[in-house]
Every structure is written in structure tokens, then in C-alpha cells.
């Protein structure tokens, strides 16, 4: 049974002999549009080829997510700058800096003695935007094998927008929000939703301090 291509060019049905059917359950043709060799998009990483129309719609959808993420990031940065300019923070400490200095050798115990002091220049401040789960990168050492590595586990952390408009966890350690990829182009709606939440939280915070941007 030779089906004919059910894709259209400027409203005209293609009609060329089809090679396959679109597997997208949301295809504009129920059961999947038949497609010819020029109305299919072959993709690496996607298990099966979609008809051109579905493929273009998927591209548009992904592009919209990326645009929404960019808008939210820009808004967070703009609000951070406006707040700084208005002298409205950042005023919540998310990182408390200390320095450790050697003060001497304890002969009796045979150990070096250190003293830890606050280092106010190194403290970091932000605006609190909520608590989220993070993968923090923590160096670990295994004394038995004299080896080390990076531990990653999910932990809820107070989360802040920094003076420069970045997102940072309490403690200022390196890490990333679990399941999200804030700084790379990744195609997740979760990242968009998080950034939208962050932008809304910053807007609310700015408004409460009498700072408005467009
Ligand atoms: Zn389709
Ligand atoms: Zn066709």
C-alpha cells in the first residue's frame, strides 16, 4: 500500500509517494502524517524521524524555551543592578569568609597550631530567593587510600541572587541546581520555570524596596 505524503507546501498537499509515517503522537495527522523524502527531518539523538511540520514545531517550541530563559536571566541581572544602584542590598550574607593562619608549633603535642579569623573582605552577600535542591561539589579525601574526588549529593540550600545577578547557594560553594542547567543551553522547562520563579521573586523583592524597572 503506497501512501502519499501528507505534508503541505504553502497549503498544497505534497502527494509524492511516502517513505514513512511520523511517529509523533501530536502530529497534525492522526496516526502520523505520511512523509516523503523531502518532508522528513532526520535527527541524530531522536529515535525516529518526524515529519517536517512536527520537526519545525518542535524546534520552535525549544527556541521559545531558550528565549524565555534568556529573558528571565536578563531580568534577574537587571533587577540586581537596579537594586545595587538604589542602595538596596545585597544585604544577606550567603558566604562567610575566613582565613587560617599559622601561629606556632606546640612542642608538647608535636602539632602546628592555626588560628582562624573572619575575613570581612571575602564575605559575600545576595538577595534570598528561596530554598532549592543543589548538587554541591565538595572535595573528599579518603585517607586510607590517599585519594580524593568530588562528592555530589542533593541538598536543600538557601539560594541567593548575587550582586552581579548570578545564582549562588548558601556557603558560596561550587555546584549546580539539581536537575537544572542554568548556564548552558539545555532544553528543560524546569530550568525555565526556575528562572521565572527567580525573576518573580526578585521583582517582588525590588518592589518591596521601592525599586522598579520596566
Ligand atoms: Zn508529524
Ligand atoms: Zn512530501
Give an overview in words:
With 214 residues, the protein is an alpha+beta fold. It folds into 2 domains: 8-48, no CATH class; 62-94 and 125-208, no CATH class. The chain has helices at residues 52-85, 189-208; strands spanning 8-9, 12-13, 20-21, 34-35, 40-41, 50-51, 92-95, 98-106, 111-118, 124-142, 147-162, 167-169, 175-177. A hairpin with a 4-residue loop joins strand 11 and strand 12 (167-169). Helix 1 (52-85) runs parallel beside helix 2 (189-208). It is elongated, with a radius of gyration of 27 Å. The structure holds zinc ion (ZN) (2 copies). One zinc ion binds at residues 22, 24, 27, 33, 50-51, 53-54.
Describe this structure in a few short sentences.
This protein is of the alpha+beta class and 214 residues long.
Number of helices: 2
Could you say how many structural domains there are in total?
Answer: 2
What's the main sheet like?
5 strands, antiparallel
Helix content: 25-40%
Helix-strand pattern: EEEEEEHEEEEEEEH
Amino acid at each position: 500500500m503506497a501512501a502519499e505524503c501528507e505534508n503541505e507546501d504553502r497549503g498544497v498537499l505534497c502527494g509524492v509517494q511516502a517513505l514513512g509515517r511520523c511517529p509523533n503522537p501530536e502530529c497534525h495527522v492522526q496516526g502520523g502524517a505520511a512523509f516523503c523524502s523531502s518532508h522528513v527531518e532526520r535527527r541524530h539523538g531522536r529515535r525516529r524521524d518526524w515529519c517536517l511540520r512536527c520537526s519545525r514545531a518542535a524546534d520552535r517550541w525549544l527556541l521559545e524555551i531558550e528565549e524565555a530563559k534568556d529573558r528571565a536571566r536578563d531580568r534577574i541581572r537587571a533587577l540586581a543592578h537596579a537594586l545595587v544602584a538604589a542602595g538596596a542590598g545585597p544585604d544577606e550574607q550567603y558566604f562567610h569568609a575566613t582565613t587560617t593562619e599559622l601561629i606556632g608549633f606546640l612542642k608538647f603535642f608535636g602539632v602546628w597550631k592555626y588560628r582562624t579569623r573572619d575575613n570581612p573582605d571575602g564575605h559575600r552577600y545576595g538577595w534570598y530567593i528561596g530554598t532549592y535542591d543543589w548538587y554541591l561539589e565538595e572535595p573528599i579525601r579518603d585517607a586510607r587510600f590517599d585519594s580524593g574526588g568530588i562528592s555530589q549529593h542533593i541538598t536543600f540550600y538557601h539560594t541567593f541572587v548575587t550582586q552581579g545577578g548570578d545564582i549562588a547557594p548558601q556557603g558560596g560553594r561550587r555546584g549546580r541546581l539539581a536537575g537544572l542547567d542554568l548556564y548552558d543551553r539545555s532544553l528543560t522547562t524546569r530550568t525555565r520555570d526556575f528562572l521565572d520563579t527567580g525573576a518573580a521573586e526578585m521583582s517582588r523583592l525590588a518592589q518591596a524596596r521601592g525599586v522598579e524597572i520596566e
